[in-house]
Known about the structure:
The protein is mostly helical. The protein is 76% helix and 0% strand. It is built from eight helices and no strands. The radius of gyration is 18 Å and the shape is elongated. It starts with 5 loop residues before the first helix and ends with a helix.
Amino acid sequence: MKKLFYPLAIVTTIVYIVLFLNIKSNWVFNLDQWASDLLMDNKFLVFFHYFGEPAFVVVVAIVLLLVLWIRDHNYRGMFFALVTIAAGNVLNQLLKVWVQRPRPDIPDQLKSFSFPSGHSMTGILYLFTLAYIATEYQSSKKVKIFTWIGAVVLTVLIGMSRVAESRHFASDVLAGWSMGYTWFIIAVIWYERRKRIFKELSQKKIEE
């Protein structure tokens, strides 16, 4: 992965902290209100919430693990996927309980807490993990670029869908994207470091 994406995790961490510290401020309220007025009841956007549903993410994660195992017994890749998707979801639930922000006040609203958005956070985690692993097996630069573009666009649509159906505030979605990206980069740094160490050890054995 291009190392220029690493510093962006510092920015996303700051964004999350700023949103967390200002969750009851006027500018966050105005941001949430503006996004709600812009996106509410947009039927096109609402559809994309299905791609962030827990059941869908679990199925995708299981398929990914099976592919990594069957294809070349890529245990590091399997662990990487578990760290990003499964552990990332646990982190999201812990943050929600810590912040305890109520969801938007609408009829038949979900009972769980709102900040940060689970769909947004797990969405960016599983989609970026898929894109990252898929491009590892791909040599075409164009395919890599389009894979990442697809992941980013679907991530954005999933997050916007939560505002469109009033399940989350826009600040919840921004926080989910921010913490999701930060967690993803932390996992990538670990994964690439382990891969580099393994490659160096393999090279030493060959030289010996």
